[in-house]
Amino acid sequence: MAEKTAVKTKWSVDPAHSEIGFRVKHMMITTVSGTFGKFDAVVETEDEDFTTATIEFTADVDSITTHNADRDKHLKSDDFFAADKYPQIKFKSTRIEKKDDQNFILHGDLTIRDVTKPVALDVELGGIGKDPWGNQKAGFTITGKIKRTDYKLNWNAALETGGVLVGEEVKINAEVQLVKQA
What we know:
Blueprint: E1 8-13, E2 19-26, E3 30-36, E4 39-46, E5 49-60, E6 64-65, H1 69-76, E7 88-98, E8 103-112, E9 115-130, E10 136-147, E11 166-180
Antiparallel strand pairs: 1-4, 1-11, 2-3, 2-11, 3-6, 4-5, 5-7, 7-8, 8-9, 9-10, 10-11
């Protein structure tokens, strides 16, 4: 009997139903949230098996928003992302580790500015199904943490009370909906 050959399946991001966000401590007492408004991913799986996925993701640094124009301008400057020199944040998967039917660890290389480092992100599969227009979709919640100074996002200011203005740890939180390509 012939063995069934897996079919390469391509997926694209549904930007209307996806959000790429981050959170960082401010003054060590509150958390500031932000998002990237412009991003894309190329995802390829064998059939609909996401443990086989290869993922290449980009976010345009210039699309960052924290809902404060002065802060956003500062984040785009050389003190942080240096958007003029490094216009994109990039992620390329290296492997996916299955924990159970809904939970995975996505391993890959994250590039911010001119620094590339390995990261591991927690991924929860929300489900796979057809929308009312017949499009096959898959939904994921992605979370993780990085140390911002690992990527030359070094700017900070000391506080009179001790501590610093901007936290070291950046929490990544994303909701991603993929659409199966014909």
